Amino acid sequence: MKRLTAAQVDEILAGVGPAATIWLVGAGGCGMSGLGNLLLDLGCNVRGSDAEESAFLDSLRVRGADVAVGHSAERFREANPALVVYTPAVRADNVEMIAAEQAQVPIVRRSTALAALARRRSAICVTGMHGKSTTSAMLAFALERLGAEPGYAVGATIPQLSEHARFNMAAGDRGLFVVETDESDGSLPEFAPENAIVLNVDEEHLEHFENLERVCAEFNEFGRQVAGALIYCADDPRLSKLYAGRAHAVSYGFNLSANYRVELEPREPGDGTAGTRFRLFHQGECRGRFHTRLLGATSASNAAAVAALLLELGFEARDVAEALGEFEGAGRRQEEIFHDSGIRVFEDYGHHPEEIEVTLDALRTLGGERLLVAFQPHKYTRTRFLLSRFAKSFHAADKVWITDVYPAGEEEIPGVNGEALCAAICEHGERAEFASELGRLAELVRAELREGDVVVFLGAGDICRPARALARQLKEGRMEKKQELLAALQTRLGPGSVARTDEPMAKRTTLRVGGPADFYVEPDSEDSLAATLAFCAEEAIPFRVVGRGSNLLVRDGGFRGMVICLKHESFSAIRVEGDEIHCGAGARLRAVAQAAKQHELGGLEFLEGIPGSVGGALRMNAGAMGGATFDSLVSLRFMSHAGEPAELSSDKIEVGYRSCPMFKDSIALGAVFRGTPTERELIQERMDACSRKRWDSQPAAPSAGCMFKNPDSIPAGRLVEELGLKGMRVGGAMVSDVHGNFVVNAGDAKASDVLELIERVRAKARTDRGIELHTEVEIIGEEA
Ligand code: FAD
Q: N- or C-end of the chain: fewer Cβ atoms within 10 A?
């Protein structure tokens, strides 16, 4: 079979016209289905087959492709395609490949077809042995966020983008096109991109290349074909040897000689975000602070590669930092598939010793008590060539399971198997066990699991199945346990109480973000509240009392415990006796202010515009327009966490600015305020003045009020304004352009967006003005 070049394939595609039938052999893989998407974008009639059903096949069908399960020469002949594209995973004796040869239909491998399409755009190839899917996904995502409307073809799903491959039809030949470029089968030099990122070169694909020198020669040839910036990692000595000093070569990395030098930043106290922070220096000058939600130094290095390229393309550092900070990762790359208070389960595609080490080091940064690792070796050839490196790559693990080799289309090699690898790992001193049946792997891992463990399933084959099975079992187990606990709690509550599981906290907070609370209770009486507290103590369930949620930011993973809300009418009634206003902790502040006005009692007008409850206002000593909650307080009723109710007069209570420490270990049940007899019209006038001031100075969009405490030297809002941060966005979160101290949910914000935005404001205040900002809003819950 004569091998066609990318230029020839491009000519064929141009010659047959856009509506031609293109046949895909092995259409259901991530890369092939991506190519299918590109061809569909071009208007081609996409047909083909795969050995098994997959979500990728389905997504092609949804777009009109005719792709079937099972290879068939008859279907192929009936389709009469103009071109056949195959994946290297397909064997040469495939019936459709034979039929194509007999019918003399041009046949090309996937990479050549992709190279042909890349010729039609300003291509940016992302290549290297490790990390190219994540890096190309990150670049595609960042360009999308930067408004460049890129095309892209990435070999992993990108949950934040609707497809993992798209041909930007409207862009024309100058449109940017990000291509994850595979080096495994010698097709790298078929690409002649405008720009490129090369991450690393390593001993890999030795079934194809004679030796490492041949691999390097391939990268050398590729480098010559890059017309514009060739961004390469200065920490890789082989790449430095190949590319340093070459025209247009730009290096990045931790190495002091790198053109773009990365410096990791330690985590600041109070930083509520996940991931890794770094600064990027170009010729000694700091070009900006960056944050990636991905873990580990290598993730920072990959993000630096993307940042370096985008800066070379002329994008602003601030915009680049913003876009990179929003990227949440590619499918099966450091992907968290289960998370509760005690256990975290990840899936990762790593299948090379270098990738294993990097992934395990990154997961170690999570601080779990033990790191448990299940690994499925991928290909007999790789297992044989790299056996001694594999044996040494699990040193960060506390326990390892090794399955048998996933063949990926290869013939078995006698003596090369999971058992042998497992023995080699044990010899190296690690605790490893051979898991002979993949179907039992989830069970084996589950039997070993205990609180505090981080688990990762590693491999490029079908180890995702037991990984997902374990995640499902843990979720089901958690749900079952939750339902049991809920039923037990309900037997102890009064009949008017509300008790539920999995309450979305976005519904219970004014900022409208936050994942679910495991349990949610609205007790109908003090007895029910005391019973709830006793239940939490017995079952060791953490709890949190929440009012209207107007001073709370709940993280996307939600709250692992019980949220108690005193919304029931028995806690929210308001009664006026003489000049005293008796109100339950659940009463709305606005209702308290209205009741006071109704009875011509002044002094509580400032409560009108604070969107909280009496309980929250007592805890925070809420105040506005010169008044504060404790100014008018006569006494309050509270319950200790042990369930004992009691009362206290206000002169016995210690209060501070926006704080009342006694509620750290007690719950407000109600309060008595004293008003000053005042004419209703005057009260109304004061209320109107308060609300005018609010409307003029505060945003209407959902928020949690003032985000930061005022530093001594300057009000936080003015500081944010002076720093030029009003209007700054991360995802759906935005610094209000009305008031600098408000972060608003401008649409579909996640808690992670808000947290990232908070960190950017804090970082800017720290570097530009030396001011440390602290949040006034309370941040609770877990990362997603
Ligand atoms: P939540 O936000 O639900 O909880 C706040 C804290 O109180 C948490 O620690 C919670 O555990 C605790 N808590 C709640 N109920 C109880 C209870 N019964 N017993 C013990 N602890 C409890 N604040 C001001 O001070 N002045 C303002 O002018 C102001 N303006 C705002 C404007 C807007 C638009 C928004 C969204 C908020 C504003 N806030 C303001 C913040 C907020 O409204 C106040 O802090 C309010 O007192 C919080 O009440 P909450 O019921 O919403 O409490």
A: N
